[in-house]
Amino acid sequence: MASIAENISSLRTRIRQAELRCGRSPHSVSVLAVSKTQDADGIQEAWAAGQREFGENYVQEALGKISELAQRIPDSGIHWHFIGPIQSNKTRDIAEHFSWVHSVERLKIAQRLSAQRPAELPPLNVCVQVNLSGEDSKSGLPLAEAPALCEQISRLPALRLRGLMAIPAPCDDMEQQRRVFRPLAQLQKEMSSRFPDFDTLSIGMSADYEAAIAEGSTLVRIGTALFGART
Ligand SMILES: *Cc1c(COP(=O)(O)O)cnc(C)c1O
């Protein structure tokens, strides 16, 4: 089995090739390492290979690893991204311990995150999660409702509105994957002229990141292809 460092290296190569194929500049796509179910050792190994952005889905699981890593590697430069469904009673932990949240789909949650963000920390980076697969998925709001939520989030003082995120239903045809991503990429482009920091399109996972890059992804969220299959 390949090591995490080897996986990171081949992932970077394939991302570079995908950027080249579609005429995008080198390093226009970053990797968010999705470390749900991975222990602190796996995260540390990825960190040693240069990975700095990590994504977690479950608050309780994440908090333990965040403090463990902070003890092991002071000034690690790690940024933690919250990418799972958000319950209102977890917003304080998220506001206090993460740099990014990708899964905001309701104003009430955004308001709580802004109110609970500690004053000594920089604004919390936020992406609005859109549902691209209709009834197949319960997470995210309909594409047509995203602009209004973005408008409201852009006025919250402790949040920094960065872009859009989606998790489409799995599908193994690349052309179909691209068709599903396309309207989101289009909306991201339109809204980037309305909001000053709107520079992020968080799409692409292990099975569809090449399609996502072809459609303009700036941040691919990779678990399996980096850490191996989750048990
Ligand atoms: C688990 C997860 C990923 C990573 O999925 P892989 O297929 O393992 O790369 C990405 N984004 C979200 C929101 C996830 O929950």
Hetero ligands:
pyridoxal-5'-phosphate
Shape category: globular
Q: CATH homologous superfamily name?
A: Alanine racemase
Can you identify the CATH class? Alpha Beta
How big is the Rg? 17 Å
- Structural class, by secondary structure, is alpha/beta
Quote the CATH topology: TIM Barrel
Mean pLDDT: 96
In terms of per-residue confidence, which ranges show pLDDT below 50 for 5 or more consecutive residues? none
Structural notes for this entry:
The model has no long low-confidence stretch (mean pLDDT 96). Helix 7 links the parallel strand 7 (159-166) and strand 8 (200-202). The protein has one domain (4-227): Alanine racemase (TIM Barrel, Alpha-Beta Barrel). Strands 1, 2, 3, 4, 5, 6, 7, 8 and 9 form a nine-stranded parallel sheet that branches. It has helices spanning 4-21, 40-48, 59-72, 91-97, 107-116, 146-153, 174-192, 209-214, 224-227; strands at residues 30-34, 53-56, 79-82, 100-104, 124-131, 141-142, 159-166, 200-202, 219-222. The protein is globular and about 45 Å long. The chain has 231 residues and is of the alpha/beta class. The structure holds pyridoxal-5'-phosphate. The site of pyridoxal-5'-phosphate (PLP) has 13 residues, from strand 9 and helix 9.
Topology at a glance:
Blueprint: H1 4-21, E1 30-34, H2 40-48, E2 53-56, H3 59-72, E3 79-82, H4 91-97, E4 100-104, H5 107-116, E5 124-131, E6 141-142, H6 146-153, E7 159-166, H7 174-192, E8 200-202, H8 209-214, E9 219-222, H9 224-227
Parallel strand pairs: 1-2, 1-9, 2-3, 3-4, 4-5, 5-6, 5-7, 7-8
